[in-house]
Amino acid sequence: MWYARGTKPLENPLSASPNLGIKWVRVPDTDTIMNRRATTMPPKSELTMNARNYVWIFTIVLLCVLCAGVVSIAAHPQQNPPQENTQAPPPPTDPQDPRFKLNVEVELVNITATVLDEQGKYMDGLKLEDFQVFEDGEEQKISFFSHDLRVPISVGVLIDNSGSMRHKLQQALQTVREIATALGPQDEMFVISFNSDVDVRHHFTTNMQEIQRSFRDLKAGGETAAYDAIELAVNEEMKKAKHNKKVLLLVTDGFDTKSHINSTQVEDVLKRAQILVYAIGIDDDDDDPLVLRRTRYHIYHYMLGRLTSISGGRAFRLFTGRNYALNSLAQVLLEELHQQYTLSYYPGSGRDKNAWRQVEVKVKKAGSQIRHRTGYYVNQSNKASN
Predict the structure, then answer these.
(1) In the prediction, which pLDDT does 89 show?
(2) How far apart are CA 124 and CA 382, in angstroms?
(3) Which of 43, 106, 175, 315 has the greatest count of CB atoms below 10 A from its CB?
(4) pTM for the full model?
């Protein structure tokens, strides 16, 4: 369609006079405009494809956001309220738990031994192959062996202050003082005195100054209840001991006259205990003129020897009126007490639960002397130690 500027459209612009000075402009018609729009607009299929691309991109972004949220939750889990545990309990790991124990009973017997040389000094440096252990005459296989050079000890001192100790008491007290002074810082001691009665003068303590003060006002008189003192010491005071190695030191002239139990009963008490018994017997000297002028009391060697041998200890003999290096005696005694050889074995089965088992230990060293407990009761705990 053609138009003259500022005029109406003409059907045939060529028919108009070219000399009229009119500038002709061609205006596209409707069909031409539609065709041009069709060529400049993208096709419908391309729009659909672009929309799908946008949808996929949105979906991927959304999935990424969700995944990030899941990872964050997994890294910081919420603490849920406690729920009742319906699962079975885990298997026990505590050996004291009854479910942990086997249905068989295996008992380890421990024997502690002291070995001396020909001069009565402690023999050091022995090895497992130097020992043999026998139970009721049958040799046992030693399962464990150790040599302890510094064992802390719990010592109970039993001092006889009966009338027969009248001229011996100060010597007895000075001997105990030297022993208390020589004890180590970890060692502990209690003191019991006995005549017709038994008196606990001090319970276990590591303060030796208190032990020294407990000897004040101790006088001799009355009869001798040595067995009662041993029973009280074993069944009451020694149960408070802190250390495994327990020692009773009996200072007496060695004759019981007043106890409520007899020698057989006190021996049974010692057989059932894990306690070493040492004795210092203070005897009257028949060669001393001053002693000959008064009534003499000799120590009862059989009683002291019997009590000490059952437990694996030994007896020392002192005489009144003689000068002794008591500090040296204390050092020798404590050197012996602070060391020990320990031999452990598993005995055979089929034993009477209330039976007394005889134990013997031998050392394959010429001139050696060995001391140990002579046996144990099967039904006792911590069998045959010391």
Answers:
(1) 46
(2) 26
(3) 175
(4) 0.68
